[in-house]
Design goal:
Blueprint lengths: L1 H12 L2 E3 L12 E3 L2 E2 L2 E7 L5 E7 L11 E10 L6 E11 L2 E11 L4 E3 L8 E8 L5 E8 L4 E8 L7 E7 L2 E2 L3 E2 L7 E9 L2 E2 L6 E7 L2 E6 L7 E5 L3
Parallel strand pairs: 3-18
Antiparallel strand pairs: 1-9, 2-3, 4-13, 4-18, 5-10, 5-16, 6-7, 6-13, 7-8, 8-9, 10-11, 11-12, 14-15, 16-17, 16-20, 18-19, 19-20
Length: about 240
């Protein structure tokens, strides 16, 4: 009986939490012009077909006011620039009425994000990867928390995927009924080991994308060195 209870508890840890209709969702890049978006900041490789994308980062520590509602997503993905789908996996950091939460997710946009019931904390060392077959459009999405010692993997399929881009992105998530949300203050987020098709993303002369809003630049990437760069928050 004790062993059965342990197995049930272990199974519960990998239960997926469906995203509610009014929760944050990561989505395609909302392009303003070359190198400028209203929801993405980071690097995007173009040209495809891309059959893999990966990156690593340290989960950012966000700060927020006592009643603030804001969010930030970090992910590795395929598609989303030049295509209407995104196949992605990563983390959400959110301020909800001033309370900070960190969660893991994967998303086969336009389907809603699915939460991953695994612990994520500020400072955790994370690695995300998306791998697919160009012929079958079967995707393997993997997220590793090196600090907490867990790995999550899921198999998904999306026949509509164009494999048009590969990216490592800091995003201001969207709520479908409300549009792009306030970008949480994450300070500086460091990415490293970023690859596309198994090569450093710099080999593809990727597009550096800055995020803008009505008040100007919200976040922008530093120069890229191989697969390493940072995204710097400027305002929400």
């Amino acid at each position: 009986m004790k062993r059965l209870a342990t197995l049930v508890a272990s199974a519960a840890l990998v239960t997926l939490i469906p995203a509610a209709a009014n929760t944050a969702q990561a989505g395609p890049m909302r392009r303003v012009r070359a190198g400028v978006s209203t929801n993405w900041a980071g690097y995007v490789a173009h040209g495809g077909p891309f059959t893999s994308a990966s990156t690593s980062w340290n989960e950012p520590s966000i700060s927020c006011g006592s009643k603030e509602n804001s969010s930030e997503a970090t992910f590795a993905g395929i598609d989303g620039s030049g295509s209407s789908t995104v196949e992605q996996i990563g983390t959400f950091a959110q301020c909800r009425n001033g309370s900070v939460t960190h969660t893991a997710f994967y998303e086969m946009f336009p389907r809603a994000a699915a939460g991953i019931a695994k612990p994520v904390r500020a400072g955790d060392s994370m690695t995300a990867s998306v791998v697919t077959s160009a012929s079958t459009k079967a995707f393997t999405l993997t997220l590793v928390n090196h600090t907490a010692g867990w790995t999550f993997t899921t198999q998904q399929r999306n026949k509509r995927a164009k494999l048009a881009s590969a990216e490592a992105i800091t995003e201001a998530p969207t709520i479908r009924s409300r549009g792009v949300q306030t970008l949480a203050n994450f300070g500086t987020e460091n990415y490293f080991g970023t690859t596309a098709n198994g090569q450093p993303i710099s080999n593809f002369s990727p597009e550096a994308v800055s995020m803008v809003g009505s008040g100007g630049v919200k976040a922008s990437p530093t120069a890229l060195s191989g697969g390493s760069f940072s995204v710097i928050w400027q305002h929400g």
